[in-house]
Structure formats: C-alpha cells, structure tokens
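Q: What structure does this chain adopt?
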Amino acid sequence: MSPILRYLLPTLLLAGCSTLPTGPDILVLPGTGKSNGQFRDDDGNCRQLAQQQLASSPAPDSIEEGQQIYDISYMQCMYGKGHRVPIPRELTYGMKQEWHAPPPPNLPAPNLPASAP
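A:
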C-alpha cells in the first residue's frame, strides 16, 4: 500500500462520520525556547496523530466524545514535544496543600505520655 493511500484511506473512510472533530478545542502555547516554526510543525504533526488515534479507536457515541478523544491525544502529543498545555480543572482537585508555619526556634519538645508496656 502506498504511503499516501495509507494516510488518505482512514481520512476518507471517516469523512462521512459526523463525530469527527476538525481541530483541537483547547489552547496550547509554544513551550519555552520553542520558535513559532517549531510550534507550527509540532501542531501539524500532533493534529495528524490525534486524527489517527480517533480513527483507530471505536466509533465515538457523540460529537463531544469524539472531540474529547481528539483533544486528549493532541494535548499528550504537544506536551510530549515540550509545549504548554492547560490542566483541566477536574485534575487539579485535592492538589491544594495546606501550609503550616514552622514552630518558633528553641521550642522544647512536647511531653509525650509514656506508653504502657
């Protein structure tokens, strides 16, 4: 099978599906030290990878599910190439750490009761 047909065939087969996204629904920014040219190249490669991931997965039940599969694949690819991706709010729950002030200097240790034998 020719390389062109190998990439074109899945796209043509899925062109009739109404659940295929046309692009990412998320904002990704260039990584530190990445040029706009590198970002554009990586964006194109990651869009193609996301389309391939979507084509190889079972048919999504809805447009939203298809978009979610596409966005996750795209974000993973762009993050792996060193670009800045958003962190979904549902992944940040419980990550807030409490801060406690350190004890004052020269504070004696508390007197703990002796444990029973």
